[in-house]
Amino acid sequence: MKKIIVLLSVLFLTLGLAMPVWAQNDKAQQPETKVQLTEAQKKELADIHEDILENKLELIDKHVEFGIITKEKGDMIKAKIQEKAKKMKENGYMPGACKYGHHKGREMRGEGDQ
User: Fold this and answer.
1) By percentage, how much of the chain surpasses pLDDT 70?
2) What's the CA gap between 82 and 58, in Å, rounded?
3) How many Å apart are CA 98 and CA 88, to the nearest integer?
């Protein structure tokens, strides 16, 4: 019985370590497509992104108003949101166009406060 448990554990561990490699290979095989948006499509995306930006900023203001976060932290978060929105606009609102690297803004989520 112990041998079966050990063998199954080794099997699951091996599969668990191999999964990221398989996932990476699947991504590499998918060709990246370039999409050319019409002006109407760009305008529609811009309108939606503007609405989202306004809602996010309003949400941060409410968090400050209700005392969930400080005004200083709210201002910092709003600046980051506006910076990201600016990059999205510069890159035509295409997904993945405004990468920040490996989440450099961790202090935004309060991880540095503890």
Assistant:
1) 71
2) 12
3) 6
